[in-house]
């Protein structure tokens, strides 16, 4: 048996793999076909994982979507093969698609180079992300927020993708130009390139920062902008948004008084905060969707500024991927936005007493009997549903 590395991001709660998973010494950790429960996932994330090369070969080829010869062709001409990539990805589950994109982004950000080729690789990932998002935006946001509340694995890239999707939609809601949105999305993907590994490590632990870590965190926006400029990025909005994405000095300045780069930086800062509040970090559980939205959208007087209003319009009061309790007592997962900000489309996965149901039901929360009664912290949800099966109810 020849063992080859198995990337942790392909572990998805409530799903199964068609092959065994081992540790580096060949000890079996997960049997083929065994469902990955939340506790199992937590256990597996402690290990460097491997799979038998022969047993996992068919799965790997399906995951990549193309054989070796076609992958060479894609490497030579990515742009011409975007349509083929999209056609292949439609055969994969949404979770698998996003796992693939997380690994692709992590691979690019892992080794930033002073080389225009590195920037092209990065832009290629962004285009692939846009393809998936344009086909299934709400479902994609639901997946990224839901999984972000489950684990902090590869946190930096998951956070970058969440921020890219949500910031991009907010910018479109505010009427930004295509060029501005593209610059913003590129900034979201690269804002933490200078502390990717540190951010991943910190997301898994609850201890404090050393002096060196604090310096790296404080300097990472400027260092990220330097790395991008060295690689040939000349887009002033992209570079400035990365450099200023933690700067709150212009937080209360009207947008019309800000430069385009400052506007992009402020939007990215707010979305970054919002997504972080919805994500698990160490032992810190994510906030409920409604609380995260309130803290990110509203000022001390309870009013929303332009960015807050765009975020509310884009996400609704109950963001996709968060949990709610319905008027009849059912617990439900928010799948997508609905006809009103307070009436999302949801899937009820428990009965009125909180017991799991065999067949989850799509509920129209615009109807009084199924209205959202309250947002739920994930700690109040005893049985985590298979969110991909719930998302299938939208089709």
Question: What does this protein look like?
Answer:
- This is Phosphohydrolase.
- It comes from Azohydromonas lata.
- The structure is a single chain.
- By secondary structure, the protein is α+β, with helices and mostly antiparallel strands.
- It has 3 domains: 1-64, no CATH class; 79-286, Hypothetical protein af1432; 323-394, no CATH class.
- The protein has helices at residues 38-44, 53-64, 68-76, 82-89, 94-110, 116-135, 137-150, 155-173, 178-190, 196-203, 211-230, 236-243, 260-277, 289-297, 306-315, 387-391, and strands at 3-5, 21-22, 28-30, 50-52, 323-326, 331-340, 343-350, 356-364, 372-376.
- The strands form 3 sheets. The chain has a 5-stranded antiparallel β-sheet, sandwiched between helices. Strands 1-4 form a two-stranded antiparallel sheet.
- β7 (343-350) and β8 form a beta hairpin.
- Residues 65-92 have low confidence and may be disordered.
Label this structure with key terms.
395 residues; 16 helices; 3 domains; 9 strands; Hypothetical protein af1432; 5-stranded antiparallel sheet; alpha+beta
Per DSSP E runs of 2 or more residues, the count of β-strands stands at 9
Q: Give the oligomeric state.
A: single chain
| Low-confidence runs | 65-92
How are helices and strands ordered from N to C?
EEEHEHHHHHHHHHHHHHHEEEEEH
CATH class of the largest domain: Mainly Alpha
Task: Compute the separation of the termini in Å.
Answer: 41 Å
What value does the Rg take, in angstroms? Answer: 21 Å
């Amino acid at each position: 048996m020849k063992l080859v590395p198995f990337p942790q991001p392909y572990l998805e709660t409530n799903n199964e793999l068609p092959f065994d998973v081992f540790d580096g010494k060949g000890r079996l950790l997960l049997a083929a076909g065994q469902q990955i429960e939340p506790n199992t996932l937590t256990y597996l994330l402690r290990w460097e994982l491997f799979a038998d090369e022969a047993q996992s070969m068919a799965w790997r080829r399906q995951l990549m979507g193309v054989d070796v010869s076609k992958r060479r062709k894609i490497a030579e001409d990515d742009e011409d093969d975007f349509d083929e990539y999209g056609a292949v990805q439609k055969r994969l589950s949404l979770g698998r698609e996003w796992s693939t994109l997380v690994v692709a982004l992590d691979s690019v950000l892992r080794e930033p180079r002073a080389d225009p080729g590195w920037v092209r690789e990065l832009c290629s990932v962004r285009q692939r992300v846009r393809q998936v998002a344009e086909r299934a935006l709400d479902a994609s946001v639901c997946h990224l927020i839901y999984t972000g509340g489950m684990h902090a694995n590869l946190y930096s890239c998951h956070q970058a993708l969440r921020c890219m999707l949500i910031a991009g939609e907010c910018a479109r809601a505010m009427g930004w130009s295509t060029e501005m949105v593209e610059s913003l999305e590129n900034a979201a993907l690269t804002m933490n390139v200078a502390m990717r590994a540190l951010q991943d490590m910190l997301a898994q632990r609850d201890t404090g920062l050393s002096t060196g870590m604090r310096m790296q965190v404080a300097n990472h926006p400027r260092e990220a902008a330097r790395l991008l400029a060295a690689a040939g990025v000349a887009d002033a909005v992209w570079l400035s948004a990365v450099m200023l994405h933690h700067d709150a000095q212009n937080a209360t300045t009207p947008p019309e008084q800000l430069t385009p780069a400052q506007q992009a930086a402020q939007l990215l800062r707010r979305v970054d905060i919002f997504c972080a509040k919805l994500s698990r970090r160490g032992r810190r559980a994510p906030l409920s969707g409604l609380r995260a939205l309130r803290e990110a959208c509203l000022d001390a007087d309870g009013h929303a500024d332009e960015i807050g209003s765009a975020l509310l319009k884009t996400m609704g009061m109950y963001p996709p991927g968060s949990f709610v309790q319905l008027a009849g007592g059912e617990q439900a997962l928010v799948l997508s936005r609905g006809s009103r900000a307070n009436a999302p489309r949801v899937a009820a996965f428990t009965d009125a007493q909180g017991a799991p149901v065999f067949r989850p039901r799509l509920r129209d929360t615009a109807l009084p009997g199924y209205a959202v009664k309250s947002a739920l912290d994930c700690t109040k949800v005893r049985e985590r549903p298979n969110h991909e099966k719930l998302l299938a109810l939208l089709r």
